[in-house]
Design goal:
The complex is a heterodimer of chains A (about 350) and B (about 350). Chain A is mainly beta. In chain A, about 5% of the residues lie in helices and about 40% in strands. In chain A, strands 1-28-27-26 form a 4-stranded antiparallel beta sheet, with no helix packed on it. In chain A, a hairpin with an 8-residue loop joins β4 and β5. The termini of chain A are far apart. Chain B has about 350 residues and is mostly beta strands. Chain B contains 3 helices and 26 strands. A 4-stranded antiparallel beta sheet of chain B has the order 1-26-25-24, with no helix packed on it. A 4-stranded antiparallel beta sheet of chain B has the order 2-3-4-5, with no helix packed on it. Classes of the chains: A mainly beta (about 350), B mainly beta (about 350). Chains A and B meet through loops of A and β5, β9 and α3 of B.
Chain lengths: ~350, ~350
């Protein structure tokens, strides 16, 4: 047997193993879909869905990229304005109102979560801010600060950068500055006590930051890398009923699990490239993990359902633009375990998926 | 010392190159391709009829795209302060607007209506194509706007030709067309130089073309139309030719004698009938409205689908019935041509009287 032939045989054997594994490992979860959830009049359009979430009454909130980000001209610096809006819809998906009109930091929607008290939290990756709206639509807490100006010319040597950053010289890359200097934050979650966890994020920071309910900084953990406790893009965060913290480590294609103090507990892979997480709230909790395997999410996409230890229960959906297909899922609402809202960036829509028991 | 010398030489070379680019002695770019070579083309008499009526407070800017639906409504996609998409009644009265403040509208380029009267807006500012239902609801989007956060790092100035040729994203794409199966054809564009075919559900099927002037190359594929057999007509503006492709995007023919095809249109509308189809191509006056080429640009050619010229009409100018840089045409009825024009911020409804066509010197 020549070397080439042996190599060829090995490849065949590997391919067989892989295909058998793929067939047996992950069952498809059947579902019904409504791809036309959000209904608006002609003066309101939703664009890329940064985040979607329901409150306890079933009202739907969407933080979406709509209109255009503007840079002002004629000043000695250029200021970023507009670009994203926060919309409220009723239980049937009909547009009710806009919240946060003309507020300071709505530029590039990246996430939205509704907490157990029905507060609505927006995450903006351009403004580097996490903003809490109470159930009446008033701003209750602001974490992070929007950079005062945006750079529109090559940075001169020695000039400082604005907003966030990778930390000072003595800190490991990506570990961030203690506090709320975010760099492209991606997600927010809470534990039972109301402590706040921010995934920070998708820029130069690679950390999870924890704050008290009043917004005061408690601790943070993580740095850039592939070791346990390190991240290559913290894209999403969730906290279970026991206070364990789940972080979607997109670049390392894994989920890492920490205790409430940030101590690494375990990790799991096999859920593709995790874009966002949603943790169910029932007696037995499950994770939904959205996978997008290519930059446009048009070739390789699905949503996995796993147990908290990472055991995959099943998966559903595929890449594309038809109902039940996904292109860059960036947000899942799983307040009801088998009745999901799924928001997509590239398809500009929210779909309602009703999972069926097999 | 040696290094400094090299730097200064480079600077001299750069300045030299720049002065060449901006030299007024060189012929402007439009001279190369914007001159039709067809001769003895009959002139088709035409007239512009007063039509579009805007209500107070409603203005259009540069009219970049125009299309009718099966009921006679007219859509104009234009660059006002914001890029906007207006709907007019069959009588030309402004009725409503689609896509106000939508994420995908930044810099209008084209609009087309498909067989189901869905309205497709082609925006070269956001690299996106948006499919609206007849009621103005978003049904599908193609392409993806560059992430604004990533764009910040690209400033200042505009980004350059990239030729990214990403399957599911565009590079300042210009136009869209549909065949009888609902497959989607996109001319893409200023940065890419290709024609892309998607199935009716937006799934990428195939792309052809690179930048250049050779076989199956494009230099700003600027407009696209399909006939009922599924052939695709690409206005290869920079190369001054209409490139004909079959349904699989294999090359069929080049029509090289009608100047620079800024806008192409195949008559008959999106739904197949027994009518005969014609191809219209506009050799448009340059968008900066230069005086010199007015004498040999501005006309629209009417052709058989095989490229045989039937006649021509119009000339460059801003008076009614003249054309101030046609950027798009609708020719659902082969004798009623709607023209969207950049330079006078207007669209016109043009009636043709082909039976009265007379031979004329070109």
């Amino acid at each position: 047997m020549t070397y080439e032939l042996r190599a060829f045989a090995t490849v065949i054997a590997l391919a067989l193993c892989a295909s058998v594994g793929a067939q047996t490992s992950v069952p498809e979860i059947p579902f019904d879909v409504d791809a036309d959830v959000l209904k608006t009049t002609l003066d309101v359009y939703v664009g890329e869905i940064g985040g979607v979430g329901r409150n306890s009454r079933g009202q739907i909130f969407v933080y979406t990229r709509t209109g255009h980000p503007y840079g002002t001209l004629g000043d000695n610096r250029t200021f970023l304005r507009n670009g994203s809006k926060l919309f409220q819809f009723d239980q049937g998906g009909r547009f009710v109102r806009e919240l946060g009109q003309q507020t300071y930091g709505f530029n590039a929607a990246y996430g939205l979560r509704v907490d157990p008290q029905d507060n609505v939290w927006t995450i903006d990756e351009a403004a580097n801010q996490v903003v809490k709206f109470d159930a009446q639509g008033n701003i209750a807490l602001v974490l992070g600060r929007k950079p005062e100006a945006i750079s529109v010319r090559p940075r001169e040597p020695g000039a400082g950068g604005g907003g966030g950053g990778g930390g000072a010289a003595n800190r490991p890359p990506g570990s961030g500055v203690p506090g709320s200097s975010f760099n492209h934050p991606a997600d927010v979650a809470w534990d039972k006590a109301g402590n706040i966890y921010v995934a920070d994020g998708t820029g130069t920071n690679n950390r999870v930051a924890k704050y008290a309910p009043d917004g005061s900084f408690i601790r943070h953990w993580g740095q850039t890398g592939a070791e346990d406790g390190q991240f290559n893009g913290v894209k999403s965060v969730a906290v279970d009923a026991q206070g364990n913290v789940y972080a979607a480590d997109i670049g390392n294609k894994r989920i890492q699990v920490f205790d409430a103090d940030g101590n690494f507990k375990y990790k799991f892979a096999g859920v593709g490239t995790p874009q966002t997480l949603c943790l169910t709230t029932g007696a037995t909790q499950y994770l939904y993990i959205a996978h997008s395997g290519d930059p446009e999410g048009m070739d390789d996409a699905t949503i996995y359902k796993t147990k908290l230890d990472g055991t995959v229960v099943g998966k559903f959906g595929s890449a594309g633009k038809l109902p039940g297909q996904f292109s860059l899922v960036n947000s899942i609402d799983c307040r009801s375990e088998n009745d999901l809202l799924v928001g997509e960036m590239a398809n500009w829509r929210v779909q309602k998926l009703t999972l069926k028991q097999r | 010392m040696k290094r400094r010398l090299t730097v200064s030489l480079t600077l001299v070379a750069l300045i030299g190159a720049l002065s060449l680019v901006f030299s007024p002695l060189l012929p402007p770019a439009y001279a190369q391709t914007n001159r039709a070579t067809a001769t003895n083309v009959p002139v088709i008499p035409h007239e512009a009829v007063p039509f579009f009526k805007n209500t107070p407070g409603i203005y259009t800017g540069e009219n970049m795209g125009i299309a009718t639906n099966s009921k006679g409504n007219v859509y104009i996609y234009h660059r006002a302060n914001e890029t906007r998409l207006f709907e007019y009644s069959p009588q030309g009265v402004f009725t409503r607007e689609f896509g106000r403040n939508i994420y995908g509208f930044a810099f209008a380029h084209g609009v087309r209506v498909d067989a189901q009267d869905n309205v497709w807006a082609v925006d070269e500012g956001t690299d996106m194509i948006i499919k609206f239902s007849p009621e103005g609801k978003v049904l599908m989007v193609l392409g993806r706007r560059n992430d604004p956060v990533e764009q910040l790092s690209n400033m200042p100035g505009s980004s350059a030709f990239h030729g990214r040729n990403s399957r599911n994203r565009f590079g300042r794409q210009t136009d869209v067309a549909f065949d009888q199966q609902g497959n989607i054809f996109v001319s893409d564009g200023y940065f890419d130089a290709r024609v892309v075919k998607f199935d009716k559900n937006g799934r990428f099927l195939k792309a052809v073309g690179t930048r250049g002037n050779g076989h199956l190359q494009f230099s700003t594929p600027h407009s696209i139309a399909a006939d009922w057999q599924g052939n695709v007509y690409v206005g290869d503006r920079g190369n001054g030719r209409v490139v004909v492709l079959d349904n699989d995007l294999d090359w069929k023919a080049n029509y090289t004698n009608v100047g620079a095809p800024w806008a192409v249109c195949v008559s008959g509308g999106p739904v197949k009938t027994s009518a005969k189809q014609y191809l219209y191509s506009s050799n448009s006056w340059s968008d900066s409205a230069p005086a010199e080429p007015m004498a040999w640009t501005g006309e629209v050619y009417k052709m058989e689908l095989d490229g045989t010229i039937v006649g021509r009409f119009g000339k460059a100018g801003k008076a009614p019935g003249e054309f101030a840089t046609i950027h798009a045409m609708d020719c659902r009825d082969p004798n009623v041509i709607y023209t969207a024009e950049i330079n006078n911020w207007r669209s016109q409804k043009i009636l043709l009287k082909p039976q009265a066509a007379t031979a004329s010197r070109n």
